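Ticket opened by: R.M.
Priority: normal
Category: complex prediction / small molecule

The reporter submitted a protein together with 2-acetamido-2-deoxy-beta-D-glucopyranose and asked that the result be attached to this ticket for the collaborator who will pick it up next week. Submitted input follows.
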Amino acid sequence: MLGLFAWRLFCVLVCCGVGHSERNVLLIIADDAGFETDVYNNTVVQTPHLRALSQRSLIFKNAFTTVSSCSPSRSTILTGLPQHQNGMYGLHQGVHHFNSFDGVRSLPLLLKEANILTGIVGKKHVGPGPVYPFDFAYTEETNSVLQVGRNITKIKLLVRKFFQSQRERSGEEIEERPFFLYVAFHDPHRCGHSQPQYGAFCEKFGNGESGMGRIPDWEPKYYSPDQVKVPDFIPDTPAARADIAAQYTTVSRLDQGIGLVLQELRDAGFENDTLVIYSSDNGIPFPNGRTNLYGSGVMEPMLISSPEHRQRQGQISQAYVSLLDITPTILDWFSLPYPSYSISGGHPVQLTGRSLLPALISEPSWVAVYASQSLHEVTMYYPMRSVHQGPYRLLHNMHYRMPFPIDQDFYVSPTFQDLLNRTRTGQPTGWFKTLNEYYYRARWELFDTRSDPTERRNLAGDPAYAQVLESLRAQLLKWQWRTEDPWVCEPDAVLEAKLEPQCRPLYNGL
Ligand SMILES: *[C@@H]1O[C@H](CO)[C@@H](O)[C@H](O)[C@H]1NC(C)=O
Ligand SMILES: *[C@@H]1O[C@H](CO)[C@@H](O)[C@H](O)[C@H]1NC(C)=O
Ligand SMILES: *[C@@H]1O[C@H](CO)[C@@H](O)[C@H](O)[C@H]1NC(C)=O
Ligand SMILES: *[C@@H]1O[C@H](CO)[C@@H](O)[C@H](O)[C@H]1NC(C)=O
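Result attached by the on-call engineer:
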């Protein structure tokens, strides 16, 4: 009897231990989330679950997206390639469905080929399907995005179902496949232009009031407009404050959702072999935020929690990291190589991001990140490229003679409507720039974020910074060539790409 008991115990400890997949990934991406969490010192918004995760994570203070737009950003997360290289130039939805190139070898594709179970719950917003395959998918393609992206009870149950399916698929409990689960919340995105009945940030959806339905696991948190912290790039007006208070309520739902997802991970027994990454796709949907390559449009929260790297848990890293690093990080975690192949038929594709796992051991000296934006909505053509090196941010606004375009969702937001009204009627806007300055930008914008954190003073024309400008321009161009950017010669030359790729001058006065 004792022998059998000992054998059983041995089986529990060893057989299951060995059979248990050793390394998994849970990637959590929020939608338009920023620094509205006490992890980043906003003490007003209640985000205890993000706080708890951060205590087991390395907290990146300088994480950036390469593109401040949903689908393009998600495509870079899932391919490691900037939008101009993977082809997802703008938003994937509706009749304007931008897609990545058919030949792109995405992260889910590579993981699937390596027999890793892939799952997505929430907002997918990238395509085409064959480039982004998932074994288990509950997304806006087949469900209501409110349900799979904002109903945290539904999300919890889907995550539970994923873990159950992971067990069932593998049949014998001894042979579980490692997994990659991507939970893409739709919170705290705006919804004023699509579902205004739920409030500007869908903050009323599921709150139990009449007509709002109920999300059983959600305990809504409310904030008053005079309580909120107005970021310095947002006009400080009553309208903006009320808008931010609504955003906070939705951030609190996101936080509770993250808590539920992490609890499912724990309950399924995967806490100690799963790499957890939390970030967001782009800047918050406020003036100077989303769709901009200014810091306020591209800086992202980022937490990485590894059960195998406990040395720096709870610490803050100053290293410059990019959402382009997520694919190389996850490949590194699974010890998978990036394949050698070409998209355009020319040079082999190179990942310009890097694995972030070394940062979990000691602080690296990574000081440069790049960005590349071409469109948001189909009409919003405004190509920009940027490099952020140490304290300097350089932006190249290629089509700077056009007014900066505005998206539908942001246009109807209370903050922007108020800004338009105040500008039209000549009242003080409470903003740090005028609408005219916002629409009409210089071709080159160079900022020193040490003395000018809000990026107001353009140094591009200052002779004292001529050398900095020259060196950053050269660095940016080098990255554009390396990532096969079709816009590399814009706006004053034409790229002749065949034979010997080169820029041929247009003499157009730019
Ligand atoms: C929060 O504030 C403290 C004190 O000023 C600072 O040391 C820390 O870096 C801040 N944390 C983040 C994530 O910005
Ligand atoms: C959220 O999902 C749960 C579980 O599917 C459901 O019972 C509830 O009615 C949903 N709430 C809303 C507001 O749709
Ligand atoms: C995970 O590790 C922690 C700390 O070592 C331990 O307390 C916990 O029981 C472990 N959980 C599982 C499911 O093995
Ligand atoms: C802006 O002005 C319009 C027209 O006068 C008005 O209907 C709207 O409520 C105002 N919006 C804000 C946010 O002040």
